[in-house]
Amino acid sequence: MNRKTISLPNGGRLLTALAFFMTFSCLHAVTVAAQEDSLRVISFESRSRSWFRYTDMENSLYRHLSGLAFEQLADRSREVAKLRSADDWRHRQAELRRIFDDMIGPFPEKTPLNPKTTGVLEKDGYHVEKILFESSPGYYVTSALFVPEGLRGKAPAVLFCVGHSAAAFRRPLYQHVVLNLVKKGFVVLAVEPIGQGERLQYFDPESGESLIGGSTLEHSYPAAQYFIAGNAVATRFIWDGIRCIDYLLTRDEVDPDRIGCHGLSGGGTQSSYIAAFDERVKAVAPAGFITNLTRLFESVGPQDGEQNMYLDIASGIDHADILAVRAPKPALIVATTRDFFSIQGSRETYDELVGTYSALGERGNIAITEDDYGHGYTKKNREAVYAFFQKHLDLPGDPTDEEVEYLSYEELTITKTGQISTSLNSKTAFDLNAADGEKLVKDLKNSRNNLDSHLKKVRTKAAKLSGYHRPSGVAEPVFTGRHHREGYFIEKYFIRGEGDYIIPFVLLLPEKDGPHPAVIYIHPEGKLADIEVGGSMDSLARRGYAVLAPDLVGTGETGPGQYQGDAYEFKVGKANYNLWFAGLRTGRSIAGLRAADTVRLTDFLAGRADIQAADISAVAVGTMCPVLLHAAAFETAFSRVALIEPLVSYRSLVMNRYYSPSCILNSVAASLTAYDLPDLAACIAPRELTLVNVLNHNGEPADSEMLGRDTAVIHAAYKKASKEDKLRVLQTANLAESLGNIFTER
To answer: What is the enclosing helix (H) or strand (E) of 257?
Structure first.
């Protein structure tokens, strides 16, 4: 597989495309890098010309998304503060179960585990059984069962969930806790989550490593596909844990009424989630995870894929609810004062849970332990975990942390090759989600048979799912300067966006008297991407068009900022999954926010006397195409729309194992449950629409089969409107002949 990183979109090729697209004689291109600073609206190299109020503009997008989260979390806090009695909390718990089921479920049908023991290790005082089982048919889980010697009757068991580590439970950090629990008489089942140990989802046999990176990326990469299909990758983690408990209960050594669950970091996430969904867990002790979402968003921000639930914040869910839903069953929060998971949040969540457990008559069943340390274990906290399980799983003993002899990685290898993919040809998380995606694609195809009804539903559901809010009124823009070029002026403005952020933009105005036809031009790199002399915007302005090019929130002067999260490059382009997760948790997609701001700018143009309000067009480039599609599907202000190198469909992201991460930021969670990008394009009919060099999921030209399948609904809409001549789908470098004069001389 080609792992070379390519810039998406390809600026040089786009310039050529648009030069032909507008059929004008090419001017000699000159470098204007020295002029870029003077064309900035707010922040300049020379601080004497900067607007100091907006010095943190590059963090605008995250600040806005987190602000939405804070408002929703404050609403939740006010509602929780009203709860007093046991009945109040029981009603709350019933509502929490419903919300959790909506966000995570439904779980698959329970099928035979088909467990296999691949080896047994006899050790001093215990033995280890290396276990494989199928949590779903053909989907394998690797685990190790640690059984103490000399058990008398049934013993309590602890499901041990590991954090982010390539070695998984083989890492000494985790073995230490497992072996101490075993020494104290607990049966322990240590399980590997997907993306770690022998369960790599993107394993490369040649390198022996993951093709996409570490365990957090092995989680976030499929998580995006899951969310677009209306699923959650957390479901796979939780279901594997539930099936682990199913396996434990088949063992004669295990007391089914004394099941505990524990893990650190990512294992803290898993253990708390599993306990929230499986009533058989009597006691849970998540470590290095529980804080609260206000403190999380104030500090490190959302984390990798499985730690996020769709619409959880919008639904009034916080970390406390993960434990409150199972109250008054025993729970221990294990925290450290210097963890990146805020200790202040851990303490605040504990204080809230004290109220919950007190109301339910079991104040002693909620506890917290903390120590002065970073992200990890300390002796004090380990001993608190042992003592907690000894008390609540009824196995009295000495909680002292002991030195242990660690097992080697080779000893604890479960499969023949060290990977389920090469040993067992196991299904992957992608395979399971793609099966659901196939059903969604079929449902969409059936819905399109009644096109009018379908497109009406698309507009309604797409607005809701994307979190699109139609702007009301036009804020007064702030004018910050003007430059002159031959034939036109470049005016600089900013205007307030939806929240406490601004949208810088440039407006290229022809020297000739107006009113002028106008073009909104949005680019993933912002307003300066194609502004040079001889470039696309220059050419439009010389042909008589007013051109507005913005830095939509998160681009140009407004981003990407310091919040990087899970940003990385893979194959084509760059992704910031954690920033995208912030939007889907609050119900406000980045695409929806940007679409509304695009409409906001269009309203500004339409209100100017020097602009022809009935002749406003829009051009989007590359990964900004979904933004324009949403805006144009909801609003009729655009007389013509041109998409340069657009993604062919969200379907292609879900149904192909590998995709370009750069496509994610402007995708919409759960979109495939109701619509796809071609459905939005169909909503534009009968207005002019041109698709130029459509790309597939990997940022490569879409082949004819994919193009035909995914654009069929667009062609059907234009045919039904008897406006087939208004639709152009072009996959060619020779655009002069093909595109004609969409943007003719004005």
So the answer is: strand 254-264
